[in-house]
Amino acid sequence: GDSVTQMEGPVTLSEEAFLTINCTYTATGYPSLFWYVQYPGEGLQLLLKATKADDKGSNKGFEATYRKETTSFHLEKGSVQVSDSAVYFCALGYTGTASKLTFGTGTRLQVTL
Amino acid sequence: KAGVTQTPRYLIKTRGQQVTLSCSPISGHRSVSWYQQTPGQGLQFLFEYFSETQRNKGNFPGRFSGRQFSNSRSEMNVSTLELGDSALYLCASSVGQEISYEQYFGPGTRLTVT
């Protein structure tokens, strides 16, 4: 079956540091890949997505590239801010069952001044 | 535009009881999905409803059930509660089932079973 593996957290960075959160997946088909973010006390918000191999999703300074050869979708940001502190989830899904997302376990990011 | 709302936000129940959680999707959204979030298992898909029909189901026992009304509002029910059912239950809505449609999540209902 499908699965998503994320790096263990928490990840603690100083403001303006470079961020990488690793995500790899195992899929039975050709999924779309997503990054969601969850701020304290809130639901998940879609951060970015990529629907096919070599696509790059980007939003709010975050980027991730769909790498089929390495089955990866690593999240990166060049300069993090304190406001980026949250839990980040990598996920995959398929058209037709798009609501049935398979999530990773989440990576908590804490950014300090 | 109002977001996805879930009621109640917090709930404490006793083992063996049953519980009903409610989700109101964004206006115009016909697909509603439910997820269970726990520290040990992470986010797991429960089921999805589209136009009042269950379209997809996750690997949960029959104690977990749901339904969707004609106005797209959805409820999920858990009968004979167990301690392991303590979790954050998230509801998400979208326009449809195509991957291009974004899912919008509600803040969740935190259920504690004692």
Record the SSE blueprint.
The complex is a heterodimer of chains A (113) and B (114).
Chain A: E1 3-6, E2 11-14, E3 19-21, E4 23-26, E5 32-38, E6 44-50, E7 56-59, E8 62-65, E9 75-77, E10 86-93, E11 102-103, E12 107-112
Parallel strand pairs in A: 2-12
Antiparallel strand pairs in A: 1-4, 3-9, 5-6, 5-10, 7-8, 8-9, 10-11, 10-12
Chain B: E1 5-7, E2 10-13, E3 19-24, E4 31-38, E5 42-50, E6 53-57, E7 64-68, E8 74-78, E9 87-94, E10 104-105, E11 109-113
Parallel strand pairs in B: 2-11
Antiparallel strand pairs in B: 1-3, 3-8, 4-5, 4-9, 5-6, 7-8, 9-10, 9-11
Descriptive report:
The complex is a heterodimer of chains A (113) and B (114). Chain A has 113 residues and is mainly β. Chain A contains no helices and 12 strands. In chain A, the strands form 3 sheets. In chain A, strands 2, 5, 6, 10, 11 and 12 form a 6-stranded mixed β-sheet that branches. In chain A, strands 3-9-8-7 form a 4-stranded antiparallel β-sheet, with no helix packed on it. Chain B has strands spanning 5-7, 10-13, 19-24, 31-38, 42-50, 53-57, 64-68, 74-78, 87-94, 104-105, 109-113. In chain B, the strands form 2 sheets. In chain B, strands 2, 4, 5, 6, 9, 10 and 11 form a 7-stranded mixed β-sheet that branches. In chain B, strands 1-3-8-7 form a 4-stranded antiparallel β-sheet, with no helix packed on it. The chains are: A mainly beta (113), B mainly beta (114). At the A-B interface, strand 6, strand 10 and strand 11 of A face strand 4, strand 5, strand 9 and strand 10 of B.
Averaged pLDDT of chain A: 93
Main beta sheet of chain A: 6 strands, mixed
Mean pLDDT over the full residue set of chain B? 93
Biggest interface goes to: A-B, 25 and 28 residues
Helix content of chain A: under 10%
Question: How many DSSP E strands of chain B?
Answer: 11
**Overall helicity of chain B:** under 10%
User: Based on CA inertia axes, which overall geometry of chain A fits?
Assistant: globular
Q: Give me the strand/helix succession of chain B.
A: EEEEEEEEEEE
> Strand-and-helix sequence of chain A, N→C?
EEEEEEEEEEEE
Low-confidence stretches of chain B: none
Broad shape of chain B: globular
What share of the residues of chain A does DSSP label as strand, in percent? over 45%
The portion of residues forming beta strands of chain B comes to over 45%
